[in-house]
TrEMBL record:
It is a multi-pass membrane protein. The lineage of its organism: Bacteria, Bacillati, Actinomycetota, Actinomycetes, Kitasatosporales. Pfam families: AA_permease. This is Amino acid permease. Keywords: Amino-acid transport, Membrane, Transmembrane, Transmembrane helix, Transport. GO terms for biological process: amino acid transport; transmembrane transport. Belongs to the amino acid-polyamine-organocation (APC) superfamily. Amino acid transporter (AAT) (TC 2.A.3.1) family. Residues 1-11 have a biased composition (Pro residues). Residues 1-25 are annotated as: Disordered. It comes from the Bacteria. The chain crosses the membrane at residues 32-54, 60-78, 99-120, 170-191, 216-238, 258-275, 295-316, 348-366, 372-397, 409-432, 444-461. Residues 31-441 form the Amino acid permease/ SLC12A domain. It comes from Streptomyces jumonjinensis. GO terms for cellular component: membrane.
Length: 480
């Protein structure tokens, strides 16, 4: 059994490497704390939120608050299960324990697929910034450089991943705190050469809901998928010095992190800048706000921050993808080679996950209009599917843990089972809203198709494994 996992229930293998050597405990508490703190700050917050503001107007604050509430509930549920049974396979392990091997297979591999594709997308985004600074240099070369750098870092030791993320997260958190500080000073009118805007940008230009409830719905959909990445801390916790305490601390601080970084920054943006300013979409809301306040070199400053956010996400996703695939293999859900570890690092899984991500980059150049778009549509709703597995798993495992070993419930879901059902209803609502919109409907169909295919494969594997076990048991009984 791996050093990183809790004892598995009867009939379920432990979450360990298959090479006879488990994962290490190379992450210190400072690494885990900063991963938890910086994990909520992605490039989507700095750039992607502009499209939501352009549709929802000032009501984007409500959209981020509602989606943030849903994410807090998901994080609390995931934290409860991960603190009770720390494992590098996190929600995939929980889904297998709660629902069955097919659920662990489907949720784990669909998340691995998401992470690998997103590694490629983040590499492309980072390369575009670099070619903007150094015109004439090829984008693919920058992507290759970043990919190789983080692959090598993850191959060496888990502490390298932790150090990268520690400093990346520190820079991201520092940038957000500085932005919020400047914004608050401008709002109250004490920033030099600026006048307090009052509520003019919140109530003017069409009011708080300029595009009605349809605009709010678009903003809600845009904001939900900006929160991806919170799951990494529960994966990393399995390799930390104190897994249970680390998860518990990360989950308990999730509420104020989401409120300050997401909801707070959106409130600052729409208070200071008119929501229909073209710069909000063209340059991103943070650049538009700093430009509006006359901050010198605002665009270049934010480009540095966005580059850091993209590189941080690349590093984190390579790490998470390798650990998820290793966990799946340890439970008999994938090729055995991916589960081999060397000095506590699943090196084959790191290389394969990185190569898959870079393959997606090549497809963006070779087949941008068909195969690559097909990949993008398939990952559109995956994070919501994963959250749904989390909710169903927690609903089942909480009751089982209370019956078998309530001392494991170091973190508890609030008002169980009521808020769990509320979270599941919220996810179902987002699915319905996605089905109503043309763009998101396509993503929902592709993601749904991939999920159903993996569920079917997982179920067939489960039936065959059970039949094989019964046959072996009958043969053993006959030999006696």
């Amino acid at each position: 059994m791996s050093k990183t996992s809790a004892p598995p229930p009867v009939g379920l293998p432990a979450d360990s490497g298959s090479g006879g050597q488990g994962l290490s405990h190379g992450l210190k508490q400072r690494h885990l704390s900063m991963i938890a703190l910086g994990g909520v700050i992605g490039a989507g917050l700095f750039v992607g939120s502009g499209a939501g503001i352009a549709q929802a107007g000032p009501s984007i604050v409500i959209a981020y608050a509602l989606s943030g509430l849903l994410v807090m509930l998901v994080m609390r549920m995931l934290g409860e299960m991960s603190a009770a049974n720390p494992a590098s396979g996190t929600f995939s392990v929980h889904a297998e324990r709660a629902i069955g091997p097919w659920a662990g297979f489907a949720s784990g591999w669909i998340f691995w697929f998401l992470l690998c594709v997103v590694v490629g997308l983040e590499g492309i985004g980072a390369a575009k910034i670099m070619t903007g600074w150094l015109p004439g240099t090829p984008e693919w070369a920058w992507v290759a450089l970043f990919t190789v750098t983080f692959c090598v870092a993850n191959l060496a030791a888990v502490k390298n991943f932790g150090e990268f993320e520690f400093w990346f997260a520190a820079l991201k958190v520092g940038a957000i705190v500085l932005f919020l500080g400047i914004g608050v000073l401008a709002i109250i009118g004490v920033l030099p050469d600026t006048d307090a805007p009052g509520v003019s940008n919140l109530t003017g230009e069409g009011g708080f809901l300029p595009n009605g409830t349809e605009g709010l719905v678009f903003g809600l959909l845009a904001s939900v998928f900006a929160y991806g990445g919170l799951e990494t801390v529960t994966i990393a916790a399995a390799e930390s010095e104190h897994p249970v305490q680390g998860v518990a601390k990360a989950v308990r601080t999730a509420m104020w992190r989401i409120a300050i970084f997401y909801v707070g920054s959106m409130a600052v943006v729409v208070t200071l800048v008119p929501w229909n300013d073209p710069k909000v979409v063209a340059q991103g809301p943070y650049v538009a706000t700093l430009d509006h306040l006359g901050i010198p070199a605002a665009a270049q400053i934010m480009n540095v921050v966005i580059l850091i956010a993209l590189l941080s996400a690349m590093n984190a996703n390579i790490y998470a993808a390798s650990r998820m695939s290793m966990s799946l293999v340890a439970r008999g859900q994938g090729p055995k080679a991916l589960g081999r570890t060397h000095r506590g690092v699943p090196r084959t899984a790191v290389v394969v996950s990185t190569a898959f991500g870079f393959g997606c980059v090549l497809l963006s150049y070779w087949r941008p209009d068909d195969v690559f778009m097909w990949l993008l549509n398939m990952i559109g709703a995956i994070i919501l599917v994963v959250w749904f597995f989390v909710g169903v798993s927690q609903l089942i495992l909480r009751r089982r843990t209370e019956r078998e070993d309530p001392s494991r419930l170091v973190v508890k879901m609030w008002l169980y089972p009521g808020l769990t059902w509320v979270a599941l209803a919220g996810m179902a609502t987002v699915f319905v809203l996605m089905a109503r919109e043309d763009d998101t409907r396509t993503q929902l169909l592709y993601s749904g198709g991939l999920t159903l295919a993996l569920c079917l494969v997982g179920y067939v594997r489960q039936v065959l494994a059970r039949a094989g076990a019964e046959k072996d048991g009958a043969g053993a009984e006959k030999d006696r």
